[in-house]
Fold each of these.
Amino acid sequence: MAVTLLPLSSAGLTESGAAVISGGAGGAVVRRSVLPGGVRVLTESMPGQRSAAIGFWVGVGSRDEAGGQHGSTHFLEHLLFKGTSRRTALQIASAFDEVGGESNAATAKESTCYYARVLDTDLPMAIDVIADMVTSAVLDPDELEQERDVILEEIAMDGDDPTDVAHEKFVAAVMGEHPLGRPIGGTPEAIRAVARGSVWEHYRRHYRPETLVITAAGGLDHDTVCRLVSDALQASGWSLDADAQPVARRASAAAQITGRPGLEVHFRQVEQANVIVGCPAINATDDRRFVMSVLNSVLGAGMSSRLFQEIREKRGLVYSTYSFAASYADAGYFGMYAGCAPAKTAQVIGLLTAELEKLAADGITDVELAKAVGQLSGGVVLALEDTGSRMSRLGRAELVSGEFLDIDETLSRIRSVTAGQVCELARELAAAPRTVTVVGPFDEAETFGL
């Protein structure tokens, strides 16, 4: 079943304030409420589960940072664990350690999520602690300066991984001036320069009731979660205006991407070349996103994929090769990666390109289509055995697409993909302006014959 998560307001809900979105196999039920202040709460009750996962989502990511605030979103992810007006950093950490729970956060390009997984009986504690972090962080100046150094170390660690560097440089090139091309964690220069006042302004502007989405899955009761959330937010001092409405979802009209097609070479003194070939692709609400998943499965997901079989198994040129795709509200990208001996770089670039062009020219076989459908279907079902995955699925549905797909509908859409649709999308990708990113021990004027 597919359900549009509309309206954004509380209109049209049941008397209890909760709309039943989906009733799934095994008695799992998905509900959604819009609380005063415009806070959205979505839960999936899973009978028999003794644990629960909870996530507090704010629809702000690295793409939303204003000038002088680059890196602030990721900075806040760190700082919200460093203390509130009610709790120290140690008390926040101890609250979860004492019950064997897990807590963490993730910053993305379009959202930030603070989440935890605990026993069902400890869910009230998790809601109270995370609500306190999200609403009442103090951003202590001394803690901020210390965490600035921690983030610089994190960036340096990523910079020492040539594969991470290749992906970051590729995204910057293919997205060009679009904010999605910026690194999530910011650059060392931006982190050193950003002032506490800028981070505080970013926090106060974006962390508000109408931007907050709370999702939970596991052994829980929807009405109880809503009550706990309301109590925690009111205790924090947030003003929950009964007439306030959630902020609108991001516009999904495709952006004009004017990236930097062609070859970019980045010097790193490493033993292996890291190569990515790709182009702009579809956005997150494009009807062809399931077609993209099948294409990606056939081309570069797993040991039976075309890239793995042709470049590693038949030719022995690489250890790792795969394809990938990422989609956002108004843009996306597709790429193919390989790591190889520097002397083989030109050959590997040619093979990556040839496999995409072969797919575009000849399409896929019925056997490949059936294998991809089976691989994706199994992956969907197995992933949703975990409460954390179900919690995350609710967050993405609310923030990105505005549509919730239950397992049966998801599997139906995967199985409805045709070989012709895959070939058509491959042709579009093969015809797009192509970006080639190489990270390795090369002079940056190297052309690899391109």
Amino acid sequence: MIIPAFDFINGQPVRLYQGNYSNQTKYNINLYKLFQIYEKSGVQTIHLVDLDAAKNVKNRQLNIFKNIISCTNIPIQIGGGIRTEDDINIFLKLGVKRVVIGSSAIKNKKEVKKWFKIYGSNTIILALDVVIKDNKKEIAIHGWQDQTNLTLEEIVEYFEPAGLKHVLCTDICKDGTLSGPNTILYKEIVKKFKYIKFQASGGVATLKDISCLKNSGVSSIIVGRSLLEKKFTIQEALKCWQNASLHA
């Protein structure tokens, strides 16, 4: 499915370029009206990211998310600085459908493994953000500010026995660039991990990109900047996704 995405800094919808906080574009949009359009169009999930909390959990933008969740019936998945059970519980009580766990899945693997038992496989999405180096999918954490030596494959294999089902994979070099997605990356990981539902993120600029990603085997596509900058409409994106399935 197509998942519209909104990232927030200080209550403002923004897009970063390749995860760089100093290279951000701000958007003045009416979220309430936009979500009404999405609901009528048949959007099934919206993706929200707290970029302030990703940097520092003390700066969590809880009020903005309370307001957003209260103004739509569309299921919400949310990420950014979710590092404890308390964090998860806060968002689940607000009505969030899924929480996106990033840095903690790397820094506190044993703890996160327990969360799959507590909350279930359908509540937790692992966000694995990668930089491709010498064909290795190396994971970056803490708002992409810190590089690790761990690969995407190592982390998926670690969590798979615990019930891992949903993985949001971003090619950082593509994120916010409108330069086209890394379809090779998604074809590789979908082929290797057949039971994981992958969400592709980064680089989507055209309807053709949506078709290519659908045919790579991913279950969903995160679409941010291209929708905000009207490269295509949500209706066009949804129709393209449906039609692409005929040729998958």
Amino acid sequence: MNKMEVLAKLLELGEAFTIQEALDHLKIDRNLMKYYLKVLSEAGFIKRIGKGVYALTPDPKETPSIHEFVLTSLFIKPSAIAYWSALNYHGFTEQIPNIVFVQTTARKKRQELGVFGVRYKIVRIKPEKFFGIEKAWIEEFQVPITDREKTVVDCLDKPRYCGGIIEVAKAFREELGIEKLREYALRMDNSAVIRRLGYLCDYFGVDIDLKKPKTRNYILLDPTMPREGNVNSKWRVIVNVELEGLE
């Protein structure tokens, strides 16, 4: 096979592929595969996006048009689209973040990176917090993304990655699985998540079985905002954002 025949076969795999997928599809020697990858890369038809992962373009003058969520699932493993990106995907917020938020349990030295002009924020979490993930079909790929309830809980855990409490509060205007929301919040093992969730449920009139905190200290409802506002003694939060109009 010449390089164009190899390119045609690789395009059958879609807009991106791994070396192993290419080997299985082309049924050629690994060294020969490396040679073709080198030749096609130099010609501009393929671009390396991660260890053993490549994106394809039939026109070397154009950047591969692969969806940014698909790219994430290919070069960060394990991973899930999360926080502000997941809020937008689930339709909880009309705001479209200019950065893709990804959570992973893998140890990554870089917390931010750019691929094909897209910026990614990589948030490392503890393995016990990596749950509540579903698969979304995007451009013939199954992409891991936090489900509706886990997205809310994650944003209450780290509001700085969702644009603040106002953005996650908008989710309470939509239908949520309250039992699942409660289960997820308890699994996070974070008092701040319980308190923020408890306050928001009270505000939006959502009946959820959560125990009041036994601590005397107060936390900010929105840690991205100044420490000022009324206090809520039930949940021990300082209400430092205005939620009026979101009901």
